[in-house]
Amino acid sequence: MTIWLTILGMALVTYATRVTALLTLRGELAPWLQRWLGYVPVAVFVALILPPLVLAEHNDTRVLTVGPALPAGIVGAVVAWRSGNVLLTILAGLVCFWAMRWLGM
Amino acid sequence: MASESPSVAISTPTGSTAFRAGFVDTIPLWLGVAPFGAIYAVSALTAGLSPAQTLAMSLFVFAGASQFTAAGLFAAGVAPFTIIITTLVINARHILLAAALAPFMRQASPAARAGIAFQLTDETFAVGMRRFLTSQGSPAYQFGTNLSLYCIWQASTIAGMLLGSLIPDPATYGLDLVFPLTFIGLLMPLLRDRVSGLVAALSAALTLAGALLLPGRWYILIAGLVASGIGAFLARQPHTTIAQKEKV
Fold first, then answer.
1. What was the pLDDT predicted at A71?
2. Rounded Cα gap, residues B45 and A80, in angstroms
3. Is the pLDDT reported for residue B10 higher than 50?
4. Residue B59 CB burial class (10 angstroms; 0-12, 13-18, ≥19)
5. Average pLDDT over residues B130-137
6. Buried/exposed code over A60-86 (b: 16+ C-beta within 10 A; e: otherwise)
7. Which residues are CB-contacts of B202 (< 8 A; sequence separation ≥ 6)?
């Protein structure tokens, strides 16, 4: 039941971010809010990307680690930078990961 | 997009023509989204969500980054309130998308706007806005592109649930990397100016410090809000938004 209520709460706050401006905005958002929200994706994406690449969890404590995930992420970043293509980025990162595994790293 | 026919572009498209064009123009994006949807489903099931809950999140939240993050938070036993607040911060960017879209949507009824808002995503915003900026866009076109991505998201969630039972440990194959790799693909094109690079570096530092020193996943909120806030403060010139470009 808790999970269902949590999903409901997630759905409500997410819909609020999508619908509010479409229904109520007459002019434009305040410039400071535009600037802030403009940088939120960069900040949030970095916070979501980094931990799976460089952190490992051992019984509730996190430690810095260097495994095949980090080079896979770097290769993905180079491909994303050059191509701007998400699917190519995923494929390049996975191929790098599999190559590292195959080499026994 | 490339698949538009000249007749659609020249004549004022009727609602259903524009809707269909929006739907079809978005099909090329399916390939990039499908792996992410499938991996989301696998990670949600691994986190202990039931198949119904896994699908319900795709149906009613329909925001990949927050769904995937929530799966991780559920697995870690994080409090519901924290999961909801984290979802809000991750999806706060929608406010900007909706605000940029609002001027083009005033012709539509409030009910239509409320419906279109439900499926608004980064990807379909980009598709729809490209049309609006060449004066060929319409609410029907936006709804078509939105619904197109919605369909593939549900289909890939279901596919992931079916495939997930066949792959006992996705991490062995590196499939859990699809999540960070997807966001690397979305992040890199955003790093085109100095302040963005600075925000990314600041967020990286806050993420690592927060993840190593604080319990739970507070680092997402801290890095997401503080790094972007400092970036906004440092940007002397107002960040050029799509809403502003559109007026040029």
1. 95
2. 29
3. no
4. middle
5. 87
6. eebeeeeebbbbbbebbbbbbeeeebb
7. A43, B223, B226, B227, B230, B231
Closest by Cβ to A94, choosing from B91, B177, B225 = B177
pLDDT tens, B58-84?
Answer: 999 999 999 999 998 998 889 999 999
Chain B segment 139-178 residues within 8 A of A by beta carbon are 173-178
Banded model confidence at residue B13, pLDDT cuts 50, 70, 90: low
Those residues whose C-beta lies under 8 Å from the C-beta of residue A3, and which sit 6 or more positions away, are B49, B50, B53, B74
Q: What does the pLDDT look like over B31-50, one tens digit per residue?
A: 889 988 998 999 899 889 99
- The DSSP result for B176-202, as a single string, is GGHHHHHHHHHHGGG--SHHHHHHHHH
Nearest chain A CA: its distance from B197 CA (Å): 9
Enter the ipTM. Answer: 0.90
Structure tokens at B101: 């879209």
Rounded Cα–Cα distance for residues B63 and B121 (Å): 7
pTM for this model (two decimals): 0.82
H helical segments located in B76-138: 80-90, 93-101, 110-118, 122-133
The answer to whether residues B188 and A80 touch, using CB atoms and an 8 Å cutoff, is yes
Q: What does the mean pLDDT of chain A come to?
A: 91
Which residues in chain B have their CB less than 8 angstroms from residue A55's CB? 208, 211-212
Long-range contacts of A53-56 (CB under 8 A, 24+ apart): A53/B180, A54/B208, A55/B208, A55/B211, A55/B212
Domain ranges for chain B: 6-178, 191-248
Chain A window 13-32: which residues touch B at a Cβ cutoff of 8 Å?
13-23, 25, 28-29, 31-32
Share of chain A above pLDDT 90, in %: 63
Token digits for B195?
Answer: 């302040």
